[in-house]
Amino acid sequence: MSDDRIVAICADDYGLSYGVSIGILEALDAGRLTAVSALVNGPRWPAMGVELRRRCRNADVGLHFNLTLGRPLGPMPTFTSEGSFPPVTTVVRLALRRKLPLAEIRAEIDRQLDRFETVMGRAPDYVDGHQHVHGLPGVRDALIEALAARGLAGRVWLRDAGDELHRIVLRGAHAPKTLALALAVQGLSSGFRRAALRQGFVTNEGFSGHSVFDPGKDYARAFETYLRAPGRRHLVMCHPGHVDDELRAQDWVTVTREQELAFLLSPRLPDMLEERGLRLARLSEVCPHPSPDGGRMSEATPQ
């Protein structure tokens, strides 16, 4: 079956809080997600990871690599001088100045991969980053190197948070703030796909879902724009969940998570996909992979 009209819907932040995790599981059980990105450095991961493993038969599960929320899994004396990860603004600034302690970050990548694998019993289907840190200069090279060292090239796909400029403009022209955010991420992650491909990794082709998390906006209307001009292996990012005190203590994105979850569980989503001739798919089913003889890339056939 051709994969030129497929879309994957990926829920970020699984493991952030109990309410967020339960909301994502509800959308997963309803068949509205084909990817779930897991935060593994917090206290929710071991128990919630076991539940995710039990219920993820129809979705890819990925590591949501984290450098900006909570505490690392091991010592990072330079990067986390006060014990907690710095804010994303600091991480971006250090990355652009080429001042990140990459040896410490590489060690943390391995620790988070190990914690994912201990609970899930296998390597992730893909890897992305909380607040897109995986695409930052330096971080992306450390991540790709760590995955390659584990023999995961050609076995996992990587999230490319950028897209073709004309597609970004088509989706975001109605909302200047959203367009600006998408373009900013595009600039920071420029070159990520090339770096991944050089080492034998594949990525999604087409990405949307950038949001300003404004509870006054109509999320269904925004989601419709995410489906415009899809790439061949299009990935839509979302942040569903239930609000609880645990979430409020960690993140300012609250009310919109429940709005996103309500949309995902509503009949509006399948209707929207049908109107556009799109079908939900796992990207692990449709991403190209190296042929057995190590030759040119070939397309996987969806099951």
From TrEMBL:
UniProt feature coiled coil, ranges: none
Pfam families documented for this protein: YdjC (PF04794)
Protein name: ChbG/HpnK family deacetylase
InterPro entries for the chain: Glyco_hydro/deAcase_b/a-brl, YdjC-like
Keyword annotations of the record: Carbohydrate metabolism, Hydrolase, Magnesium, Metal-binding
Organism: Methylocystis rosea
SUPFAM superfamilies (UniProt xref): Glycoside hydrolase/deacetylase
Gene3D superfamilies the UniProt entry points to: Glycoside hydrolase/deacetylase
Cofactor(s) listed in the protein's UniProt record: Mg(2+)
Keyword set includes Transferase: no
